[in-house]
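Worked example 3 (structure in, sequence out).
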């Protein structure tokens, strides 16, 4: 495995491998002299349908013999590539997991506020889907 993502050219632009860099938006590497020279040498452009990008953990999927170029990505760029490179369902579920994490971080505080406002523990459990024991433990009751 490498630490770099890979730009590569597909023989069949209809293949569902990788993500077109234009679909990710604003990648700093696309403006570098190395990438521009590589695209020129390949007779391609940053918006060509056959140009794709894969994150480091998926670079083994680059077809053998495909023209490829390793490119560094920032953490934020890499996150966007990962969200777009998998099947749409995978990207959606990852977004849901991120949302859940954000909500779960404040779970205990929310439960405490609900109890302080007079919401019964069993009702909190019904509304949140949490186990009643979890509600009680989170509230410190």
């Amino acid at each position: 495995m490498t630490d770099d993502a890979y730009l590569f050219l597909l023989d069949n632009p209809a293949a569902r491998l990788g993500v077109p860099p234009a679909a990710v938006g604003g990648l700093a590497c696309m403006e570098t002299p190395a990438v521009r020279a590589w695209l020129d040498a390949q007779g391609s452009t940053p918006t060509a349908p056959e140009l794709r990008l894969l994150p480091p953990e998926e670079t083994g999927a680059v077809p053998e013999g495909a023209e490829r170029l390793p490119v560094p990505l920032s953490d934020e760029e890499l996150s966007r590539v990962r969200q777009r490179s998998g099947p749409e369902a995978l990207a959606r579920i990852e977004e849901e997991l991120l949302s859940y994490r954000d909500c779960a971080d404040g779970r205990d505080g929310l439960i405490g506020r609900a109890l302080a406002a007079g919401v019964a523990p069993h009702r909190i459990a019904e509304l949140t889907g949490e186990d009643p024991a979890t509600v009680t433990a989170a509230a410190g009751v």
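Notes: Residues 106-139 form one domain. The beta strands are 5-9, 51-54, 68-71.
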